[in-house]
Amino acid sequence: MFGNPSRVLSRTRSAVDELVNDADFNDDLRIPSSGDDSSTSGSFTGQRATKNTEIDNMLTEPMAKSKSHTYNNTFISCSPEVDVSCSRLDSKKTITPGNSRNGKEHDSSVEHFEKLADQGNAKAALGLLYTTIHGSASWKDLDFRETSLTHHNLTLRACKRHRPPYHIEARRVLLQMRECGPSPNLQTYHEVIAALARAHEWRIAERTFAELKRDFPNHNPTIELHTSLISAYGKGGQWERAKSTFDALAKENVTMDTGIYNALLSAAVGAARYHEASIVFEQMPKKGIIRNVTTYNAILTSLGRQRRIFDMELVHKNMRKSYVEPNETTLSLLITAHGNAGDCYRAVEHLEEACKARWLKKSAVIFNSALGACVKSGESKLARDVLSMMHAEGVIPTLVTYNTMLMSASARHDWNQVVNIYLELLQHGLTPDAITFDCICGIDKLQSATDAPGRALSATGSVPNAKTSCIRHNDYKSAETRNVHDKKSQLSVGNSLVTDLGTLPELLRSTLNELDMLATESASPQKLTSTTCHVYDALLRALHLSGQAAEVETVFKAMVSKRVCRTVHTYNSLIASYEVRRQWKQAGQAMISMQEEGIAPDALTFDALINVCEEMGQWDRATAWLEHAQEQGHLRCEDELGVLDLHRIRSAGTAQTVLRWWLRRMRSRALAPLDVRAAGQGTRIILESATRGATVSRKSNNVRTCSASLSEADIPLQIRDLPDQIQVVTGWGKHSTVFGYSPVKERVLALLGGLNSPFIVPEYNIGCVVAERGEVRAWLVRDELLSLVRFLGGNRAALRRNFNPMGVDT
């Protein structure tokens, strides 16, 4: 009844994985409590694409009009009050329990900080810290005066345990402690690195670890600090770095513990190195290392991703035999795995096991996992039983719960039930997200429509599989040409999303009429106004997906005339309707209007706008909108110089824009200084060989003219060596019904193939394309030289159109 797993189910699975990934292997070390793997209720969304340089900028954002300082090559900014505080610290001792004016008062303060740290209430802890320091409740006023190191460390622990972690604030506190005092100790660094690990900021964690070693040259970092660093590497997918750090400790004969092995095991799982994960798991008892619940959860995650259900059950039994009690994450992993396998009854049995364990802390996560399993199997009665169990346990439904219920009702085409569930969601004060609107409109149909091109390619045998070893230019040339010259086919994905939503639009219109009548009679019209706004958003989404793009604009104008407040979802549907109709000017104007209203666009807004500009040949505008999106923290896909991650990109056109932008950045780094004589030996070899190749192939004086121009130009471009391997991560359609298909992947292959790039699809990972450093550098430099030759030969658009689809060498 219910086809492909929805993004709601994948989000639930991601939430379960996140519980394991977020486990702090040093927090309550040796045997973490069950609470370490528990989850907060709510929607599991998160953006983790903040780069380290941008975080350092954010560290100093709150301190406008301030004085600058430089400490250990780290730029920070202090307020005037901090300058006064720093001068006073020279003559005043930091308050400690021994020299406090009131020891009891100090002890009470420490207890308060410990309570906030245990709760993970970072905002309250930061506020209390700065109130303790100078009586200000503003945690952004960084004025460090007389306060103990204990207060700071407990505040940092609260930042670490907060969900999501307050890693930026933790880093800020550390920088100010190093500048103004009290001086940080090893525990301080441990808390900060652990917070950065939980935030998946492995580069900043690595930098902080290096600062620790520099500040404490006579002290070896503790095993806990190394554990946090390995955890940071693991959550950043840096398996080789994690393994190297672990091996270095082993060579030094450092006594290992459960925490560091758990961190290494999690790193292997996070990097999809499942064989290595099994090796680490099996080695633990041989090395005398005790396995705890976090250990078992990590290996269960590995087995679950491999769909090894029988092995998961076996591990679960062995876990109980070893007297390791499962926690909520353990059972959630088992429930999700059986749900993915279509065995919802076994999934519910594990849920019943959790409910019988009265000592087990239960949140909405475990019930959402079981509910998703039932919905996926089309067992609506069993799903209602899960909801009854949820109410009996006193667990409050979250947005994910309602999204899953909406998905079930829309799959049955029970549109009355869809509207009722949606109104109940709003009555409980929950705010719908983009997934909610997809669930309202039948997310299974949306996924099926998205996969339609993949099924067509699969029928012709064009979808790359694990045996694909390279990008075959001829295989993708026709697709690339079609995408460039046939604008309608470019936007066929938008048209293919048209689906029959039955009476849903009419029911939403009727609901709006009823709300209008209630608003005139209600004593609290403000609440009804908010509900009206969200119902309008659902109507706009339904009209868009049912192919009534023109009607979307009409309803939007009605909202404006009735002065109904708009949200980002309102404009997302409007811009998406323009995207389908290929009206890039109107889409751009809608973006401007929403910003004038003070509504911040999200990634979906920019994705739709960039996509329509790219597909209509407005490549410069598409790039400009991309840069604007990145300034606001969206579509930051460049993980590092040599890695471009397109996982979060929705549309193929936007992926193409990001890829072009990235290639230009790569070229600016790889291209030698235009004065060949000023370049290094390696650079001169590349330039000279590329120039010789162009000269031999063309046999004209244009290249000599180009070389003269190169030597006379004064453009100080600095070459930064590229990584050994350059990678573009496209994904392979993990949640697609067609194995190996992804619209983003197909477009990337088409463009790179058309550009005659050296990238290939590796056998070990069909969700990416890779190329070696030397090949990429030679290709980028050669491409630039050929572009210059075309420009000097009379093609004035050659430079501007380089890396654009129609700029492909023909």
From TrEMBL:
<feature type="repeat" description="PPR">
    <location>
        <begin position="222"/>
        <end position="256"/>
    </location>
</feature>
<protein>
    <recommendedName>
        <fullName>Smr domain-containing protein</fullName>
    </recommendedName>
</protein>
<feature type="repeat" description="PPR">
    <location>
        <begin position="292"/>
        <end position="326"/>
    </location>
</feature>
<feature type="repeat" description="PPR">
    <location>
        <begin position="567"/>
        <end position="601"/>
    </location>
</feature>
<feature type="repeat" description="PPR">
    <location>
        <begin position="398"/>
        <end position="432"/>
    </location>
</feature>
<keyword id="KW-0677">Repeat</keyword>
<dbReference type="InterPro" id="IPR002885">
    <property type="entry name" value="PPR_rpt"/>
</dbReference>
<feature type="region of interest" description="Disordered">
    <location>
        <begin position="25"/>
        <end position="55"/>
    </location>
</feature>
<dbReference type="Pfam" id="PF13041">
    <property type="entry name" value="PPR_2"/>
</dbReference>
<dbReference type="Pfam" id="PF13812">
    <property type="entry name" value="PPR_3"/>
</dbReference>
<dbReference type="InterPro" id="IPR011990">
    <property type="entry name" value="TPR-like_helical_dom_sf"/>
</dbReference>
<comment type="similarity">
    <text>Belongs to the PPR family. P subfamily.</text>
</comment>
<feature type="compositionally biased region" description="Low complexity">
    <location>
        <begin position="33"/>
        <end position="46"/>
    </location>
</feature>
<feature type="repeat" description="PPR">
    <location>
        <begin position="363"/>
        <end position="397"/>
    </location>
</feature>
<feature type="repeat" description="PPR">
    <location>
        <begin position="257"/>
        <end position="291"/>
    </location>
</feature>
